[in-house]
Amino acid sequence: MFAVYDVGAYSVALLALAFFLVWSGDRLHHAAWLWGWAHLALALASITGFRYQLGGAPWLGAVAVLLTGFYLVCMYSANEAVQGRVVPWWRLMAWSLGLSGLIAAVGFGVDQLAGRLLVLALMVLLYVWSSYFFFTRLQLPWVGGAFALRAAGFAFLLIDGANFSTVHQSLPAALTSWTTNLILGLVLVSTASRQSRRRLEQVIRHLPDAVVARRIDGTVLFCNDSFARLAGVRSPRLMVGKPVPLLSADERETARVVHEINAVAGRGAMSMPVTMERRIRRADGGVFPAEIIYSSFNDFGQIVVLAQVRDLTERKQAEEERLRLVTSDLLTGLPNRQHLEFKLRELLARSEAQSQRCALLLIDIDHFKKINDALGHLKGDEVLREISQLLGSCCQGSDLLARVGGDEFVMVMSGLAGRESVLAVEDRARQVLAQLQREVRQGGLGVTMGASIGIAFSQPEGSSPQALLQHAELALYEAKAHGRGEWRFFSDDMDARLAASLRLESALRSALAEGSQELQLHYQPICDARTGAPVKVEALLRWNSPTLGPVGPDRFIPIAEQSALILDLGHWVMNEAMRQVAAWRAAHGHAPVVSVNVSVRQFLHKDFELQLYSLLLLHGLPASQIELELTESVLAGEDEELQGLLARLRDAGWGLSLDDFGTGYSSLSYLARFRLSTVKIDRSFVRGVDQDARKRSLVRAIVSMGHSLGLVVVAEGVETEAERGVLLQEGCDQLQGYLLGRPAPAQDRPPTPAA
């Protein structure tokens, strides 16, 4: 049994429990936590205070005072928490102790009635201030009214002032206190609960994801604004109690999924959420990819299924963009080599299954480096983008177009059947070459652009993307070897030629190894046209392989030029030529000028000039002992650095000779732009010059022009006395050919007497 005066205390304790329950559901609700502690402290203060008044131990009175101070501070701190200002625990305890000390000083030091009246005054002050606060600042009139009612209730307590807050308090005063306190507590519990629910509703309402809760039968319990917009409904409230819309691009599939989810949820709340991706159709007809997360919970015996719909449009776009960056060429936007091989594998499998073939066209832009060198890399990038558009205009249907290298593109034609497909591929190759044959101009400069194409067909028994690309590459080499601007089909003998080429390259690499005696320089005299006396010699490379036998320069030089071997080979020739000149000078006191051929890649290498002077210092030679024979392709660029290098070499005493004059383009412009020392008339103009009046006229013009520019004119390939006589009559300065001497090793070609 408990005393009547404890009824109010126990009711307040139950309110404290209610506050703690509210807080347990919303741990962020700090005000509910403080209101719970405040009401628990008030209940305990009443119980201990009443026990003290009935003659209990003094410590009961002290506890009652401490709990009263704690109650008042917690109520104040709860109001602060409602505004988002959290009072630290150490400050809360300090205030409680200070206020409790004040109450104790008055109650125990002066008079108990005075102490009780002080508590009454503090409570009235707190409730009046709280009422004003909730009325005006938070716009919560129900809470403000409850605090005002609680403050007004204390007026009844003053009627029986002597017995205020004692066990002898009158029943009306006690009922008034209990009732107003109970009303205030219930209002605060309701407010705290509503505030937690409202915060949750606000979070759900403004989630970017669409959220809907439904029962097993499909009845909507609640949804947020995002889901209402998907369903085309003005407000979420209008959907409550109605069947949930499927909102799916495939309603049959979605109905099946909903049935399965209901079956799982019907056996109890899901232990784990179920996630799936579906395409969602909005009420306006728009479709987007979405991730749907299903979960369920038990709501007083009723299973509730919660669905969260997340729009994946941005994520899918980001994934597609990442995939595009990985699989596409950034400059042109075309598929790159990796993506080409992936798509090509699919095309080949489909063609094989349908007894059809694919044709792969490997398209290489001829002399694209000239565009970069002459017009700049920005213009080169612009040209590559234009090329991709031009090639795209040549594609049809399921054709595949990709960029696989700096200036290489691949076009794949699929679904080819019958012998007529070869004609269709030839027509396409012809169309591509026509589209790409054009002049690229910028700032008064122009470069002619063209292309070469290698074509390979897939085999009926199946082909791999790598094999098809390799076959097309072999065909492309064949097209380039035949003068560029053409197309060639792959044939089986190209594989044999590739194998032979690889064997040759491997053997040449071994020949360049230190200590090898396979390479040797032979020297051919260049003679004075009038006297026939040798004036200089040309160093010519010879290779005698132990496995391949004698290999002509026409076989191994092109192989070396296709790889970096040409740089090593050119360095070896230059070093060996200078070593021989130094040996002649040491043995005889003099040596002829040696003319050394220099490849395009060797001359344009950034370290070429440094290597020349390093070799001169190594062998102790003057630059005038060496003449560099250059082809027109070396001089084809518009690079100012090239002109500067040629000028420095000429000023330093190096001889500079233009070889095979007349066989390239714009030969006359080279003679005018560059400071050369010698020009060599190509053997094609010399052969039969005694019988061809046109050739004789051309030789006469070249000699005249060379002399007017201060150049020594050399005629190559002189083989008959008749040719020699004509060349002498036309004014050639020097002659070279089998008639005057064949190439021979250094030991068989002693140096000529010093001039």
Q: Can you walk through the features of this model?
A:
Residues 274-324 form the PAC domain. InterPro entries: Biofilm_reg_signaling, EAL_dom, EAL_sf, GGDEF_dom, Nucleotide_cyclase, PAS, PAS-assoc_C, PAS-like_dom_sf. The chain crosses the membrane at residues 7-25, 31-50, 57-78, 90-110, 117-135, 141-159. Residues 196-239 form the PAS domain. The protein has 755 residues and is an alpha/beta fold. It is 53% helix and 18% strand. The protein is built from 25 helices and 21 strands. The strands form three sheets. The chain has an eight-stranded mixed β-barrel with strand order 12-13-15-16-17-18-19-20, surrounded by four helices. Strands 6, 7, 8, 9, 10 and 11 form a six-stranded mixed sheet that branches. The protein has a five-stranded antiparallel sheet with strand order 2-1-5-4-3. α3 (58-82) crosses α4 (89-109) and α13 packs antiparallel against α14. The radius of gyration is 50 Å and the shape is elongated. It starts with 6 loop residues before the first helix and ends in a 10-residue tail after the last strand.
